[in-house]
Write a structure and sequence with these properties.
23% strand, 11 strands, alpha/beta, 42% helix, two-stranded antiparallel sheet, 11 helices, 7-stranded mixed sheet, 281 residues, D-Maltodextrin-Binding Protein, domain 2
Length: 281
């Protein structure tokens, strides 16, 4: 069941499918009908919602703002219908998260497991992302919750501060004993975190230009144990990994702290499952 607006439904489906043809097929309509509905919506709003490109239909800034409303409307609609339906029907709801590898498996997965026991209609979509593009994903409606450093939280979003996390420099047995300059193991070439760590702690690393890269942070302890290089790890990750791998904190007296936050789009009303989710952090 849906308390639908035909133009808004067509708009959402174009966004999800990426093309007018895909939206038409999904809704069982002709492409012409889909186009007419969106044009009517654009006329009512006096704006343009999509740009046609070689990559498909892309949202304009106005389209991104409407998407936030449309997605919030879907959540509220499902919550209301579940309360008033005589058959106590509850529509399935998918919560989408974008967070680092370590935050996903150490925090989000246990929380999701707990929520699922209370809210059977909840489903989860985990976007494991160690890059710095999470804010754009939230703005574009590609995710519902992101976990980012506190200082990066935009003012227009709601957020909850999480506890500070410590980061340490970790190496294998070779680099624990050796005075030679180590090779750095990093997540990606465009990831500034390691350089920021060295700079904050005033550790000279300008000569360490050659690096190994691995786009899965859970694999880094294994590479460290193999003495391929050193890496900056979340202290909790390091403590768990050292029980399995022969790795060491190279500077026990030095660490870097970051305060993180879980961030989401503002909502007119917070459903119970979202309140429970946020309270788990």
């Amino acid at each position: 069941m849906s308390l639908s607006n035909l133009g808004l439904d067509a708009f959402l489906q174009i966004y999800r499918e990426g093309t007018v043809q895909g939206a038409a097929k999904s809704l069982g309509l002709t492409p012409t009908a889909i186009t007419q509905r969106v044009r009517s919506l654009e006329k009512d709003l006096n704006t343009t919602l999509f740009l046609r490109t070689k990559k498909g239909m892309l949202l304009t800034d106005a389209g991104k703002k409407l998407l936030q409303f449309a997605q919030a409307k879907e959540v509220m609609e499902s919550d209301i219908l579940s309360k008033i339906s005589s058959e106590a029907y509850v529509s399935p709801i998918t919560l989408r998260f974008s967070a680092s590898t370590y935050y996903t498996y150490s925090k989000l997965l246990p929380i999701a497991e707990k929520l699922k026991t209370k809210y059977e209609h909840l489903y989860f979509d985990f976007d494991v992302d160690d890059n710095d593009n999470k804010i754009e994903k939230l703005k574009e409606g590609k995710t519902d919750f992101i976990i980012i450093p506190r200082e990066a939280v935009p003012l227009e979003f709601d957020s909850k501060l999480l506890k500070k996390r410590k980061y340490v420099l970790v190496g294998g047995s070779h680099f624990k004993k050796s005075k030679e300059d180590p090779v750095i193991i990093d997540y990606a070439k465009n990831d500034p975190f390691t350089d920021m760590f060295f700079k904050k702690l005033k550790i000279n690393h300008n000569q360490l230009k050659n690096r190994h890269y691995v786009n899965n942070t859970l694999m880094i302890p294994k590479l460290i144990e193999a003495n391929l290089g050193v890496a900056v790890l979340d202290e909790e990750h390091f403590m768990q990994a050292k029980a399995r791998y022969k790795i060491f904190d190279l500077y026990p007296s030095k660490f870097y702290e970051i305060e993180w936050a879980i961030v989401w789009m503002p909502r007119l009303e917070m459903p119970g499952y979202i309140n429970d989710l946020v309270s788990e952090f």
